[in-house]
Description:
By secondary structure, this protein is α/β, with parallel strands linked by helices. Helices cover 38% and strands 15% of the residues. It folds into three domains: 2-142, Type I PLP-dependent aspartate aminotransferase-like (Major domain) (Aspartate Aminotransferase, domain 2, 3-Layer(aba) Sandwich), CATH 3.40.640; 145-207, no CATH class; 212-319, Aspartate Aminotransferase, domain 1 (Alpha-Beta Complex), CATH 3.90.1150.10. It has helices spanning 2-12, 29-32, 54-62, 82-91, 120-123, 148-163, 173-178, 180-183, 201-207, 212-230, 259-267, 288-296, 308-319, and strands spanning 20-24, 40-44, 66-72, 95-99, 115-119, 130-134, 144-145, 195-196, 237-238, 252-255, 274-275, 297-300. A six-stranded mixed beta sheet has the order 2-1-3-4-5-6, with helices on both faces. Strand 1 (20-24), helix 2 and strand 2 (40-44) form a beta-alpha-beta unit. The longest helix is centred in the C-terminal third of the chain and has 19 residues, at 212-230.
Amino acid sequence: MGRDALSLTVSALKLGPDDAIVLPAYLCTEVLRPFVGRTRVQFYDVQADLTIDPEKVETILKRSNAKALVMINYFGFLQPYRFSIKQICTNRGIILIEDSAHSLLTEGSGETGDVVIYSFRKILPLPDGGGLKVNTGTINMRPQFYPRTYSNTLSMLIMIKALLNVRADFLSRAALSSAGKSVVPEATTIPKKKRILPLSSLASNGMGNISFSDIRENRRRDYRFWQEQVRKSKTFIPLFPDLPFDVCPLCFPVIVEERDSIKQQLQAKGIYLKVYWNLPWQIGKEFVNSHYLSSRTLALPVYPELGPREREEISKLLAS
């Protein structure tokens, strides 16, 4: 998982309670979790269009003793000012962690950060898997893994949940991974070390059967479909109106003022759309843009989540 890659990064950087990490305020709990309790956490607000202002980053870093800064490529779109942000970090001796969990198949993803985090399952039809790329020789990664049996057990539960169309927070990928010790009782006897789950056999075997070019084109095709549909709507405002040739999108994110109401309307018809994100409680109200995005962002699905029924029902709502 991408979360495991972040945990490994925390250990490799030897982040302690006297150090600090700077993260965007617009993030999910799973990105924040590896840092909480291990080092001091500071935040910066994103712009309303999800870009990161290099001047704001530099201002924060001037008054911080941060060892690292996290930059997220949201929804598959790379940060346009990433090279400026990288230069600021380099000048200050700060490690840039590029979170490319959403942008695995976007060209240029992972070329800027000193450390790059990937999540295979967010883009590929796999039950699990994360990636870690190190672009600097100053960081030594020595991962310790749990036995693959644990990953296989969790992945089987995840696949059963998907087949049964079970929707429960305690059966989410994150919850199941966190509860690994209860899933496999033998794990409780293992000394507490910073170990991570390896890629499951299901994901490892499935990787060789995937056509990355087909996945990329299918996702882009569905994104273009939604581009046409939202032109009929005054309610849904796309966060990224354009689709550059080099982007493989995670979804089609839109801003909707009555987001929760619309989500419930579709849910009543058996269509479950994702929201990005319910922010962690640590994010204060001073991060205005992040809270605005959190309360209004809705993800219209693309391949492989987008089927004929979802296409029809959501299109009706867009046209109403």
